[in-house]
TrEMBL record:
<dbReference type="InterPro" id="IPR009100">
    <property type="entry name" value="AcylCoA_DH/oxidase_NM_dom_sf"/>
</dbReference>
<dbReference type="InterPro" id="IPR013786">
    <property type="entry name" value="AcylCoA_DH/ox_N"/>
</dbReference>
<dbReference type="InterPro" id="IPR037069">
    <property type="entry name" value="AcylCoA_DH/ox_N_sf"/>
</dbReference>
<feature type="domain" description="Acyl-CoA oxidase/dehydrogenase middle">
    <location>
        <begin position="133"/>
        <end position="223"/>
    </location>
</feature>
<comment type="pathway">
    <text>Amino-acid metabolism; tryptophan metabolism.</text>
</comment>
<dbReference type="InterPro" id="IPR009075">
    <property type="entry name" value="AcylCo_DH/oxidase_C"/>
</dbReference>
<comment type="similarity">
    <text>Belongs to the acyl-CoA dehydrogenase family.</text>
</comment>
<protein>
    <recommendedName>
        <fullName>glutaryl-CoA dehydrogenase (ETF)</fullName>
        <ecNumber>1.3.8.6</ecNumber>
    </recommendedName>
</protein>
<dbReference type="InterPro" id="IPR036250">
    <property type="entry name" value="AcylCo_DH-like_C"/>
</dbReference>
<dbReference type="InterPro" id="IPR006089">
    <property type="entry name" value="Acyl-CoA_DH_CS"/>
</dbReference>
<feature type="domain" description="Acyl-CoA dehydrogenase/oxidase C-terminal">
    <location>
        <begin position="235"/>
        <end position="382"/>
    </location>
</feature>
<keyword id="KW-0274">FAD</keyword>
<dbReference type="Pfam" id="PF02770">
    <property type="entry name" value="Acyl-CoA_dh_M"/>
</dbReference>
<dbReference type="InterPro" id="IPR046373">
    <property type="entry name" value="Acyl-CoA_Oxase/DH_mid-dom_sf"/>
</dbReference>
<dbReference type="Pfam" id="PF02771">
    <property type="entry name" value="Acyl-CoA_dh_N"/>
</dbReference>
<comment type="pathway">
    <text>Amino-acid metabolism; lysine degradation.</text>
</comment>
<dbReference type="InterPro" id="IPR052033">
    <property type="entry name" value="Glutaryl-CoA_DH_mitochondrial"/>
</dbReference>
Length: 390
């Protein structure tokens, strides 16, 4: 038997038929709708078809696909992970759109919302007819969300929200925002229709990463909401952190998609690029790079699959998600950088996907928890000592 150079560990052989079908559906859609255009979108710094793409993604069932009911597909965690991998193999911005929609905004409503909130928002969001965003990070509160300044106060039966959120994917095109704010009763989540008076979502420009993605600031200036806008089932940081854990799980898989794309580009390039009379794939140093990339890609894939199987059995701990994100994003970046060296000067050209994925992964490395935070999460789990404030 010979191994598949793009799947040297043979992970495909242990996937179910349904899991492979999900992967192929998403891969084919990306090949048709995203890959021919995404290099141009990235260079221009825009995602011009975001709402149309969201409807198509809803049509193939990937928005909130790991949730059940309310129009959601109810797929396995592994199937969702494979979808994230294929989406990020196209572009991290596309996977971010899906992650924020399904694992942050929809998950928050699905897990912590009222029945009325679920009925109102989840079916159109699953179909891609309504787009959601998730407002937690602030200009001065990133890794320490407990220090957020956005505040919600009671005024009769209403809530009034004031504050700012930063680096919000989907913000400028969203129909609904899940916003976390300080209250007299601790941190609470609010379902905020973006048409509310006092709500604005200016686009963030001049990005060097995630350029084919809509990133915004949220400005809440005395936004008045009815009493039932609050998420009733959770108080404190447990709410937003539970959502972030869902999104981080998708990143464990997604980062491998960016890495696979760069590895595949390097493998093909090495076979066709001739120097000193031979393809550079025939030289030992190039083979050492390719072998190292293949090993880390295989290890990351096996780790993602194992964590996915644990999640499907209800056995996945948050610290294990930190382990997966810390390892897989770090190694994906190294794979992309090694691919760039194999392509030489061509590695910086947008005719190839390598530099685009490298730039995107610099954002993936620090969003949904920085390397430092995930290291300390693991450190606390290993030693029993919290070192976040030392």
């Amino acid at each position: 038997m010979t191994i598949d150079p793009l799947d040297p560990a043979g992970i495909d052989q242990v996937l179910t038929e349904e899991e492979r079908a999900v992967r192929e559906t998403v891969r084919d859609w990306c090949a048709d709708r995203v890959l021919p255009h995404v290099g141009d979108w990235f260079e221009r710094g825009e995602l011009p078809e975001a709402r149309a793409l969201a409807k198509e993604l809803g049509g193939i069932g990937v928005l909130g696909m790991h949730l059940t009911g309310y129009g959601c597909a109810g797929m396995s965690a592994v199937a969702y992970g494979l979808a994230c991998l294929e989406l990020e193999a196209a572009d991290s911005g596309l996977r971010s759109l899906v992650s924020v929609q399904g694992s942050l905004a929809m998950y928050a409503i699905h897990r912590h919302g009222s029945e009325q909130q679920k009925q109102q928002w989840l079916p159109p969001m699953a179909a891609g007819e309504a787009i959601g965003c998730f407002g937690l990070t602030e200009p001065d509160a990133g890794s320490d969300p407990a220090s957020m300044r956005t505040r919600a106060t009671r005024d009769g039966d209403d809530w009034v929200l004031t504050g700012r959120k930063m680096w919000i994917t989907n913000g400028s095109i969203a129909d609904v925002a899940v916003v976390w704010a300080q209250t007299d009763d601790g941190i609470r989540g609010f379902v905020v229709p973006t048409g509310s008076k006092g709500f604005a979502a200016p686009l963030i420009k001049h990005k060097g990463s995630l350029r084919a993605s809509i990133t915004s600031e949220l400005v809440l200036d005395q936004v008045r909401l009815p009493a039932d806008a609050v998420l009733p089932e959770v108080r404190g940081l447990r709410g937003p952190l539970s959502c972030l854990n869902e999104a981080r799980y998708g990143i464990v898989w997604g980062a491998l998609g960016a890495a696979r794309s760069c590895y595949a580009a390097a493998l093909e390039y090495a076979g066709g690029r001739t120097q000193f009379g031979s393809p550079i794939a025939s030289y030992q140093l190039t083979q050492a790079k390719l072998a190292g990339m293949a090993v880390e890609l295989a290890k990351g894939g096996l780790l993602a699959l194992h964590l996915g199987r644990l999640k499907d059995r209800g056995l996945l701990a948050p610290e294990q998600v930190s382990l997966g994100k810390l390892n897989n994003v770090r190694e994906a970046l190294e794979i992309c950088r090694a691919a760039r060296t194999i392509l030489g000067a061509n590695g910086i050209s947008y005719e190839y996907p390598v530099m685009r994925h490298m730039a995107n992964l610099e954002s993936v490395l620090t969003y949904e928890g920085t390397t430092e935070m995930h290291t300390l999460v693991l450190g606390q789990a290993l030693t029993g000592h919290a070192a976040f404030r030392h």
